[in-house]
Design a protein that fits this description.
One of its GO terms (cellular component) is transcription factor TFIIIC complex. The chain is mainly α. About 65% of the residues lie in helices and about 0% in strands.
Length: about 290
């Protein structure tokens, strides 16, 4: 049997780092397909000689690069490997979800894998939240609320989880088949108010409760919270980026991209306009929605 060329290449630590640096360099030049091809070929040619640590490093790098490719299907195996190695790491699941979010919802392997991780690691919060998001996307709000509530039991003081539970219960209450709609609605609003407390009355939390009231048709309450949002100037925060992620999208954002006053003003103007207060509607747009 013919021996493959350079079979012992990656046994040398220096050669391994050379491959890693090459892939990172290609990724920095946005030549993601070439970087992925190098990783794929390396894993294929040296599958029997790579140590577990070196193979894991290559697969982790492949997962980080995968979400920059137009078709991230090839990176799904790498992202799956990362969360298998670190099932309780939010960073690992964040990397995984970035890849999965760009795949079609009917990607059966993802659904089976996510279910398997939920069964195997019952106290891992990230797959619960991801499952809830996936169910919300297909309007399965009761099942989504169940997933979010499981996460809430493990981390009740997390603002995001409280927000997710609240929105899921409100969407569920707006369904046609629910008998205890008012109770479900009040429970959803209670979680949104928990989110306000946990977020220390942040602009985003106030906007979320305003948007919920607006969605429910309680425009008087919505208007009062939109006005609270308009009274706060939110400073910009750096958007978290994973290693080797394309920075162009976040680096080119305009100033005040974290400020929700324009969105609140536009929604408030819709309330005023519908109530017949056209002068107030124009004034809100003039004050807060300038180019």
């Amino acid at each position: 049997m013919r021996e493959p060329p350079l079979s012992n290449l990656l046994e040398d630590e220096e050669h391994h780092h050379l491959i890693i640096d090459l892939c990172k360099g290609l990724a920095s030049l946005q030549r993601y397909w070439e970087a992925m091809e190098v990783i794929n070929l390396t894993l294929k040619l040296a599958s029997n000689t790579l140590s577990v640590e070196k193979e894991g490093e290559l697969r982790s790098l492949g997962a980080q690069i995968a979400y920059n490719i137009m078709d991230p299907t090839h990176g799904w195996d790498y992202a799956r490997h990362v969360v298998n190695q670190h099932p309780y790491s939010f960073a690992a699941w964040n990397c995984y979800y970035k890849v999965i979010s760009r795949l079609e919802n009917r990607y059966s392997k993802h659904n089976k894998f996510l279910h398997g991780m939920r069964v195997k690691h019952k106290d891992s919060i990230a797959p619960m939240i991801i499952s809830g998001h996936q169910l919300t996307m297909i309007s399965q709000h009761q099942a989504a609320a169940r997933e979010y509530l499981e996460a809430y039991k493990l981390m009740p003081d997390n603002p995001l989880i409280n927000l997710c539970v609240g929105t899921a219960l409100i969407n569920l209450a707006l369904g046609f088949r629910l008998q205890n709609k008012h109770q479900c609605l009040l429970q959803g609003l209670a979680f949104l108010y928990n989110n306000i407390q946990l977020s220390e009355h942040s602009q985003e939390a106030l906007y979320n409760i305003a948007r919920a009231y607006h969605h429910l048709g309680l425009v008087t309450l919505a208007a009062s919270y939109y006005e609270k949002v308009l009274a706060i100037h939110e400073k910009d925060y750096p958007i978290p980026k994973l290693p080797n992620e394309n920075h162009d999208v976040t680096d080119n954002l305009k100033q005040d991209y974290c400020d929700l006053r324009r969105e609140a003003a536009y929604n408030l103007h819709l309330i005023y306009k519908r109530s017949g207060a056209l002068d107030l509607a124009r004034q809100v747009l003039k004050d807060h929605c300038k180019m």
